[in-house]
Amino acid sequence: MITKVRYVRQLYQSLWLKGAAESQGSRLLKGASGAFLLRVLYTGTTFITGILLARVLGTFGFGTYNYVLTWTITLGLVSNVGFDNLLVREIATYTAQAKWELVRGILRYANQLVFFLSSTIALLAIAVVWKLGIAESPETFAAFCLAMISLPIVALRNLTRGAIKGFNHVVLALLPELLISPIILIVLVVSSHLLLAQYLNATFTLGLYCASAVITLVIGIVMLNRVLPPEVRSVEHKYQLKRWISSALPFVFLEGLYALNSQIDVLMLGALRGVEAAGIYVPVSRGANLITFAVMAVVGVLAPVQVNLFVEGQHQELQRLMTKGIRGVLFASLAIALPLIVFGRWYLLLFGEGFTQGYAALTILCVGQVVASVSGLAGPLLNMTGFERCTLISAAIGGGLNIVLNSLLIPSGGIEGAAIATSVSMMLANLTNVIWAKQKLGIRFGVW
Questions:
Q1: FRET pair for 229, CA 20 to 30 Å: which of 70, 117, 274, 339?
Q2: pTM of this prediction?
Q3: pLDDT at residue 306, as a whole number
Q4: Would you say 259 and 77 are in contact if contact means Cβ atoms under 8 Å apart?
Q5: Mean pLDDT in the chain?
Q6: What's the CA gap between 42 and 427, in Å, rounded?
């Protein structure tokens, strides 16, 4: 326990530096607010893009587009091999220590490694799909090939984002991916619909996505050069390969679990029931995921206070804080979930008549998200108090159960089966975190 307290104390001191607590807290608040605002704007622009593409492409075309794009996102996380997150920590550390040669070294090595791995993974994926004949149609295969072409571009863009974050420009790092890219895609899709409507299918749209990815990668590189300290350009590169590779491995594991838990339902739906079922499920999943905004908002406020109370041993105050946070999450998640359930058919009708088939799945996911959100504060609490290994175990349990349930329920239940599998695995993972929090911290997760 002493080790845990020492760890948390160091974390706390890193967040709240003595003698500069107010200014540092102000910077953190501005950065967090800016990042949260960007994510809200990203959700809005993605929602608009989804409606536009669903209307233009139909259920099959929209399903093809989202299915192959989900593979790109998932393989992109794997091909980064943790270096997109590692860059944040290592660049910040080397900058504080003025080790500019190591900053240049890790930037060079990360880009070379990730470009090679992402290109190799993309080529292997195309070869496997072609050899096994997995694609449903020539259009699906062509769209998949274009999506794989964008894989190295997306992977390098992720690295650029991590590097800019490492130089302490969080909002600037998120700008190309969360705001500029969706806007460019909307402009390209609308222009193509007006000028080249006869060519606008899933494959053509994937080409537009590739174009937006290239543009935002270039913008990200320009931004990185703007924030790159001049000392980095004037030194020879130096490597710490053993340190970087060993440090990147945990990030690979975390990103793999994230990709598994967030994308597996869409991927398995496309594989077991076809891309059209996956396309119908996408707006269902996106709508239910709006409920997670309640958890994100509360976690951002509670995190530093949790550390403070835990370090000072104020257990009762920490319990009161968590109870209030749970109430806030419950009311906020219900405020989002109930309108989605009541007006769910009208929400899905925005995407097209065929998407209303997902109403039952939307209801199931909304109920699951509300239950999961109420217990969703346990994981961040464990992370902030030095018990992050517990959350890793919970995520692994949830991911494994997600695969098993999807494989059992999708063949017979379709999108409703995927919704049940996702909801149950999500609730179980969070319930496991609740049990960990009770055992390790003595914190109860109840509304009263």
A1: 117
A2: 0.73
A3: 63
A4: yes
A5: 82
A6: 26
Q: Quick one: pLDDT at residue 420?
A: 94
Confidence of residue 101 (pLDDT cuts 50, 70, 90): very high
Tell me the backbone φ, ψ of residue 183, rounded to 5 degrees: -65, -45
d(CA 341, CA 284): 11
Length of the chain: 448
Instruction: Determine contact, residues 117/152, Cβ cutoff 8 Å.
Output: no
Q: Which two tokens stand for residue 294?
A: 């309640």
What pLDDT does residue 18 have? 43
Q: How does DSSP classify residue 178? A: I
8 A C-beta contact, residue 303 and residue 384: yes
Neighbouring C-alpha atoms within 13 Å toward the C-beta of 78: 19
Query: Rounded distance, CA 251 to CA 12, Å?
Result: 22
Residue type, 152: P
Q: For residue 429, what are the CA distances in angstroms to 3, 36, 62, 271, 425?
A: 26, 25, 31, 25, 6
Q: Among 432, 320, 328, 420, which Cα is nearest to 365's?
A: 420
